[in-house]
Each structure stands twice: as C-alpha cells, then as structure tokens.
Amino acid sequence: MSIDEVKHRLLRYVCLSDEEAKAFLDVLEPFDLSKKDVLVEVNAHCQYFYWVQEGYLMNFQTDDKGFDHVLQFAIANWWTADLGSYLHGTLATYRIVALTDCKLLGISKDNLDNLLDTYPAFERYFRIIFQNALVNHQKRIIQNVAFQADVRYDEFNKQFPGIELIVPLKHVASYLGITPQFLSKLRKRSLFNSNLS
After folding, report:
1. How far apart are CA 187 and CA 162, in angstroms?
2. What is the pLDDT of residues 92-119, one digit of tens each?
3. What are phi and psi of 166, to 5 degrees?
4. What homologous superfamily is domain 3-129 in, according to CATH?
C-alpha cells in the first residue's frame, strides 16, 4: 500500500500529511490468510488490531454444545480483533477465521500506542472508528431485541451486500439470531418478493 492509498482510505475520517501516512505504513505488518485459516484462537493472545484489505473474516465464539455465535463479519476497510485481549493483554475469548483468502495489515498494541502519542490525527481516527463500532453494536442489539427477523435480514443485506454468496448460511443465521431453517424461509420469501417487483 502506498502513502497516497493510506491517505485516500483514511480521508473519510481524517486528513493526513505524507509524514503521518508514512508513519502509519511503517508500523503496519502484512498478513496473508487462506480460506479457513485461524487468525486468532481462543485462550491465546490477540497481538494485533487487523485492518482488512481484501477478503472476509468472522469473529465468533463457540459454546459448549458446539454452536457458533457470530459477533462480527469483517470486510474490506474494516478493523477486527478480540479487543479485550488486544487492549488488555488477556486471553482471547473469540476466534477469528478467514472465510475467504484475505490480505490484512496488523498493528501491535505498542505501535498503536506510540502512533497515538505521536500523531493526534490517529487519536482522532481511532476514536471515530471505535465510536462507529459502538454505535453499530448498539444498533445491532436493538435490532435483535426489538425487530422482526425479516427486518434484521433486510438490514443485514444492506450492510453486507453479496456476503451470502460467500458465508455459509449457518453463520449468517447465527449473526441474525435465527435458525438456518428460518433463514432459508426468509431468503425464499425475499427472492419471491424481488421477482414480483
């Protein structure tokens, strides 16, 4: 990634000088994953905050019955990590796996802290990233509690267009808090309605 690409990708949140963009690039480490590779494992330390350049990742927890509870799908230009582990040095409670081949850039906690201390633009950038993540998390909680499944499904498709072609339906169902069988009915209904219009 070039300095100009960094400036362009972060421009939505902050304006960066060439020096700031270079400092950011200098602390990012590349990671290439193949489909099904595990990026973060439960009971290990999450050493990096990962910026997705290409591909899809899933952040989830598996219960004692073997059921996966999906916390996040991470797509291009999103950040992902087991934040508790990354920020506090504790053991990870979530797994992160590649759903497709992925290209990531990771920043260690020490490098992030140094970047934030040295360049105020990144303090602003990461504050906005975390604020937006909190807003989206709260929105998802309300949707899961108060919205019907078909509304949640429609919102999911708006947020992640085309992801159903990549992600196994059982994971989409888990993210939505419904059974795979019910998701199948919603998909059929949605396809039927779109064919009518």
Report:
1. 13
2. 999 999 999 999 999 999 999 999 999 9
3. -110, -40
4. Jelly Rolls (2.60.120.10)
Domain residue spans of the chain: 3-129, 147-197
Handedness of CA 63, 68, 69, 71 (dihedral sign): positive
Start-to-end Cα distance in the chain: 42
DSSP helix/strand/coil, 61: strand
Instruction: Give per-residue pLDDT as tens, 135-182.
Output: 988 888 888 888 888 888 888 888 888 888 888 889 999 999 888 899
Instruction: Give DSSP secondary structure letters for 126-158.
Output: HHHHHHHHHHHHHHHHHHHHHS-HHHHHHHHHH
Which tokens sit at 22?
A: 């270079």
Strand, helix or coil for residue 108: strand
Cα atoms found within 13 Å of the Cα of residue 16, Cβ hemisphere only: 26
